[in-house]
Design goal:
The structure holds 2 protein chains of 2 kinds.
Chain A: H1 3-28, E1 40-46, H2 47-64, E2 67-73, H3 75-88, E3 95-99, H4 103-106, H5 119-123, H6 127-133, E4 134-135, E5 138-139, E6 142-145, E7 149-154, H7 155-158, H8 161-171, H9 181-191, H10 214-222, H11 242-253, H12 267-275, E8 281-285, E9 302-305, E10 309-310, E11 313-314, E12 321-324, H13 332-344, H14 360-364, H15 374-383, H16 396-411, H17 418-433
Parallel strand pairs in A: 1-2, 1-3
Antiparallel strand pairs in A: 3-12, 4-5, 6-12, 7-8, 7-9, 10-11
Helix pairs in contact in A: 10-11, 16-17
Chain B: H1 2-36, H2 41-44, H3 59-66, H4 70-102, H5 105-116, H6 122-135, H7 142-166, H8 170-178, H9 183-194, H10 196-211, H11 215-220, H12 228-233, E1 236-237, E2 240-241, H13 243-263, H14 265-274
Antiparallel strand pairs in B: 1-2
The chains are: A alpha+beta, B mainly alpha.
């Protein structure tokens, strides 16, 4: 082979490479998603928010001509992205859909929305959501949809005559969806059994989630505790008081009626167990009512009821998402206009995959509608006086990740000393807050 | 003699068993992902999980590919990875060649400094990159993302290419020069064809670094240039995890890399052994 022989091939290869690069560069200039229009609003959302907001964005486009582009990001990614851009003071989005627990962390970087919170608006929102939206005296986000844990139960088991007879004979009162701690524990115990006679328990009364904290926080509120974990006003850490211990003791008292592996059980895991027919009851977020897979053995046999009550009454934890406008955004007025529009047309989110809304009137409009049995349950839980939002502190996510979840994972292990765990948690939280 | 033969066979058998174990350890997660992508939604989340689907279905693939943004994201991933690979090679080849051929102290410092940049956490340069791309007016483009991905792959590409160039005796270039080639001509016509295996290894490395990258894609793209890793992650929302569709898209996304690796397999093996015969 001579040098001259290879030069022809080399030239051809060079030309081919150059042509390919030109094509790639042409494509890379904009990306395959198409060019962004100048008169559009960009809203960063998590997957759930995308489903909820799409019909509102579509209507906004048809009524105002402004395109609202919803940019879907993973949950953790959305936090990182918003934090990074608000921190830099230069943002690529006009509106952000924020989880309730992020509001206090991002409040310095977003514009006040006080003028949107009229008395009429506040009257049509759950009290917990109104208080949660206000950080340091300013409203920093408009709730766009909210969730709450409710009680799910197997109607085939609860309506079975034999079960009803046996339950009443054993516990002295009729079998019905439980409304308080004692009834829930009784039902959990009753349904934990070996259904096929192989000597192995294959149906459990409930689950106990050790890898997520919100269900235990709801239990804390059910005791009547007014400041779950800490009081953000005074900075006092309350996690080591009697109510928190009572809640943790009750929470872990359900372990004998739950499948093994609670320390690693999170939302998805619990939902799977219920859909597989391995649980008789589950406390879970309200949106799941319409999400049962068609081929699930319990499809069509699921009932919904308000969250259970402790000594302090029924309580859940509001799981709301808020629309906020970054202070560094260049389309402040348009962004606020869209948020006002989204509030006005909040009922459009009813017919989405999650079917969650924020306004009380939107929830009430569906109260009698077949297939929306979760709405009254959510409504009652969110309206309950004991239902309280999580503390508004910028360190909340850190407290959850480094203190609350690890503490719960230890608490669901055999032989755990709940009082000692709460004491330890108190010290850890105080260190974080300092 | 028989004893030696028996021992040799036993050693070979043990090696094959070890290879099989390693293959299963590496391959099982992907095989499981692939099998899950063919399960029904209910079976995909079954507890305890099944390995082989009871009912085979393509509905996860239909659902995944029908999801808005999936196809543009696949195109963006290809464009970004190809561009980033080209950037890496175009910059790494001359850099590595100069360092290995001129052998100056500053060259050695340069190679070390290039490696040190790999020790900087990606997140630390994420925010400055967002600012830079926005100032340049190229944010949310595959071009900007490819540049960001090049910062990840370039240092190791230089190291890889340098090791391959080291294996080429200087005499080869001397001969080319005696035939009238310039230094660049010798590099292009003689050295690069000899290290084509190394080029393939480096290209695959750079391609994979971009193909799988998540953080820069998250920070630097929004509407127009979002890549598939972000879309795959979006199947897990705060309200549920769509295992079936997620595994289906992950399987689709693995396909180009598998095909590319198979296509370049011979070059890769040659490249991997190139450094080993340095003399």
């Amino acid at each position: 082979m001579t040098l001259r022989d290879t030069s022809g091939r080399a030239r051809t290869a060079s030309l081919g490479t150059a042509a390919a690069m030109a094509g790639v560069l042409a494509l890379s200039g904009c990306g395959a998603g198409g060019d962004a229009a100048a008169d559009e609003l960009t809203v960063v959302v998590e997957g759930g928010g995308l489903a909820e907001l799409q019909p509102i964005a579509d209507l906004y486009k048809s009524e105002t001509g402004t395109t609202v582009t919803l940019v879907e990001l993973p949950y953790d990614g959305l936090y990182d992205r918003v934090q990074s851009e608000l921190g830099s003071g230069s943002v690529s989005f006009d509106v952000a859909a924020l989880d309730a627990i992020w509001l206090s962390a991002f409040s310095d970087g977003v514009s006040p929305l006080d003028d949107l919170f009229t008395e009429d608006v506040k009257a049509d929102l759950f009290p917990g959501l109104v208080s949660e939206a206000q950080i340091d005296g300013e409203y920093v986000g408009m709730p766009i949809f909210t969730n709450s844990e409710i009680l799910y139960y197997r109607t085939d088991l609860f309506e079975d005559p034999q079960n009803q007879t046996d339950f009443e004979a054993k516990y002295g009162y009729p079998l019905a969806p439980p409304t308080n701690w004692e009834q829930y524990r009784d039902a959990a115990e009753f349904f934990t059994r070996d259904t096929d006679g192989d000597g192995q328990i294959d149906l459990y009364g409930t689950d106990v989630k050790g890898a997520v904290e919100t269900e235990w926080l709801a239990t804390v509120s059910q005791t009547g505790e007014e400041h779950m974990v800490l009081d953000p006003e005074t900075g006092e850490v309350t996690i080591d008081d009697a109510e928190h211990l009572e809640a943790l003791d009750y929470y872990t008292s359900l372990l004998p009626y739950a499948p093994a592996g609670s320390a690693q059980l999170d939302w998805a895991g619990a939902q799977n167990l219920f859909y597989q027919g391995q649980l008789a009851m589950m406390r879970f977020w309200g949106h799941a009512y319409t999400q049962t897979p068609d081929d699930s053995p319990v499809a069509g046999e699921i009932g919904a009821a308000p969250m259970i009550a402790g000594a302090g009454g029924v309580a859940g934890v509001p799981g709301a998402w808020y629309l906020s406008v970054p202070a560094a955004g260049t389309k402040q007025d348009l962004a606020k206009d869209f948020i006002a529009f989204a509030y006005e047309h909040n009922d459009l989110s009813i017919d989405t995959s999650l079917g969650l809304v924020a306004r009380i009137s939107a929830f009430e409009s569906q109260a009698e509608v077949a297939g929306r049995e979760n709405y009254p349950a959510i409504l009652e839980t969110l309206n309950a006086p004991a239902t309280r939002p999580r503390p508004a502190t910028p360190q909340w996510q850190e407290i959850v990740d480094t203190v609350l979840t690890p503490m719960l994972q230890k608490a669901v292990e055999p032989g755990a000393d709940n009082a000692a765990l709460l004491q330890e948690a108190e010290a850890q939280i105080e260190a974080i807050l300092q | 003699m028989n004893g030696i033969e028996t021992r040799r066979r036993s050693t070979k058998a043990i090696l094959y068993v070890l290879l099989a174990v390693i293959l299963v350890l590496y391959g099982f997660p992907f095989v499981y992902l692939l099998l899950t992508s063919f399960k029904t939604p209910s079976e995909a989340i079954a507890v305890p999980p099944s390995v082989v689907p009871d009912v085979w279905t393509l509905e996860n693939y239909v659902a995944a590919l029908a999801k808005e943004g999936v196809v543009p994201a696949l195109v963006n991933s290809v464009v970004t990875a190809v561009l980033s690979t080209l950037f890496s090679l175009v910059l790494a080849v001359p850099a590595a060649y100069a360092v290995t051929r001129y052998r100056t102290p500053s060259g050695r410092v340069f190679v070390l400094a290039a490696l040190v940049t790999r020790m900087v956490p990606t997140i630390a340069i994420g925010a400055p990159l967002v600012e830079t791309m926005r100032a340049l007016g190229i944010s949310d483009t595959s071009f900007a993302l490819a540049i960001a991905h090049t910062t990840i792959s370039l240092p190791l590409s230089i190291w890889l290419m340098a090791s391959f160039f080291e294996a080429i005796p200087d005499e080869l270039e001397e001969a080319a020069k005696m035939d009238g080639a310039s230094r660049l001509g010798a590099l292009w016509r003689v050295v690069l064809p000899v290290v084509s295996g190394g080029l393939a290894v480096t290209a695959i490395f750079a391609f994979l670094a971009s193909w799988n990258e998540f953080l820069f894609a998250l920070l630097l793209t929004s509407v127009r240039a979002q890549t598939t890793p972000i879309v795959i992650a979006n199947f897990q929302t705060q309200f549920g995890l769509d295992w079936g569709a997620m595994t289906a898209l992950a399987a689709v996304y693995s396909l180009p890399v598998i095909l590319l690796t198979l296509a370049l397999q011979r070059h890769i093996v040659a490249g991997l052994t190139l450094g080993a015969v340095k003399g």
